[in-house]
Amino acid sequence: MKIKRKASMVVLSAVLMLGGSVALAPTASAVGSSACQFNSPDVNFKVSTSGARFRTGPGKRYRAIGTLYRGDSFRYFCRTRGFENSWSYGKILKRTTTGIHAGTRGWVYSKYLD
């Protein structure tokens, strides 16, 4: 495993030195609040269902960071549109049942928040 990692770093370094570019994976908050249409004062919610996907952006086409379960804590900052059929952006308040760290920012479908 260490050999593969070192080889990858050598290739990456060579590409960058030769003027190439490398596409890096998006961060947990790849879209961030830029997709928000409605801002709100910070409000804390609990997840109201089990199996809600926590994503890098507002929609199913974005990568899932992990899964939220009933009772997980989420601080809401904003959403994409009216509460029906919208996505909420915020951060995890306390390490989740599945191990998503406190402070991780991302998106969850609004109807899954209580």
From TrEMBL:
Pfam families given in the database record:
SH3_3
> What positions does the domain SH3b occupy?
50-114
Query: Which residue positions does the secretion signal occupy?
Result: 1-25
What's in the keyword line of the UniProt record?
Signal
InterPro entries per UniProt: SH3-like_bac-type (IPR003646)
Q: Which domain of life is it from?
A: Bacteria
- The name of this protein is SH3b domain-containing protein
